[in-house]
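Thread: sanity check for a docking pose with zinc ion

Original post by kr_44:
Hi all, I'm comparing my docking run against an independent structure prediction. Below are the sequence and the ligand SMILES. Could someone generate the full complex and paste the structure tokens? I mainly care about where the ligand ends up relative to the chain.
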Amino acid sequence: MLPAFLAQGIARFRTPDYLCVNSAVEMRLTPAILLVTLTLIFASQIVYAQHYSLLIKGGRVVDPKDNIDTEMDVAIDKGRISAIAHDINPINADKVVDARGLYVVPGMIDIHTHVFHGIKNGDNLCNGSASAIADSFSFRSGVTTIVDAGSSGWRNFPIFKRNVIDKSKTRIYAFLNIEGFGMRGEPFEQDTTDMDPEMAASIAKKYRQDIVGIKIAHFEESEWLALDSAEKAGRLASLPVMVDFGSSSRPLSLKTLCTRHLRPGDIFTHCFAEVRGRESIVDTATKKIAPYLQLARKKGIDFDVGYGKISFDFSQALPAVHTGFYPSSISTDMQSPERGDTVKNLLNIMSRFLAMGMPLREIIASCTMNPAREIRHEELGGIAPGTVADLAILELEKGKFSFFDRRRQMVQGDERFRCRMTIRQGEIVYRERRSD
Ligand SMILES: [Zn+2]
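Reply from moderator J.T.:
Ran it for you. Here is the predicted complex with zinc ion included:
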């Protein structure tokens, strides 16, 4: 007859599940290994009872926020990171993921998307079919947090929250449009009488747990009124403003925007767009970035990609990357795929920056710790013990890849990112099948 504590130890023991995201290095339990394992397990049950729901073994952890870039094991329990160490014993883990040869990074944050999907407003981004469905694209790209960039305004944010934010598995935050109905299409988005800083600030304060900033977008007049309204709302609510600089027959001055309007913490999105009616950050003639933009960055203004349909050009991004002017955040401006000609996913954009020569660590930072800082949620974007267990396991696939922008300018690379697994709050929410 076994003593009760040993009998309980045997009852509690079971071989951990091995989830192989890397099929080439599948682990097998031979009888000899099993015997050694059983012996170790008996010992551990008696002297040490640390439990993990999930253990990720042998991946290269890249976490710029916590200054980690080396092979480490990551242990998870109760939805949080329990431990990070060079060799964590798998005995007490319910599941073990073999991540050798892969990158383990914090769950990524896509800071510019449009996910106010609905059926009310036709082909529009606010409560309409043009917005994407958050859970349909986030997890398969390693994204665990997304930010809607102004699809809703102060009049319809409660609908967005009720119908989308509260029902999605992806963590969703929002920039609130200064326009009352958000991105309702034209001519509504030019209506300055519906840009109400007091009402926007009041809704932003009421929904402080969801709203992370104010958005101004698509304005087409050669005047500062709309931007000033957004900045006023931002000041009243103590939140940053994300600026889509719009377009107009007489373009507004980018220098004036950076030196007289934007505050530290504000975000200039679509930073690599070269569109008619708007000044671009790289001078189209000299291919240089003006000193005032470098100063703006030093002052604390952030530059976001917001890739979208017409908002990214290699003619802008290449000179910027080659001079070390990297984006603060890489984001998709994701909309419904039915709109056509839109970006594929965040991994595709990250791969473009890799092909342009941006260092991998900087790319990961611009999808994790930087956007977390921009939206003032610095509890996200890292993997330190105690933080919520949002993780992405990525592969850097080798090959010959061509990346085209909307003008068919091409950049070639020999690597691209693939997502092999995504974990949200300790739960595996996406696992790549070979047919994906
Ligand atoms: Zn957008």
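The domain at 4-101 is CATH 2.30.40 (Urease, subunit C; domain 1). Hope that helps with the comparison, let us know if your pose agrees.
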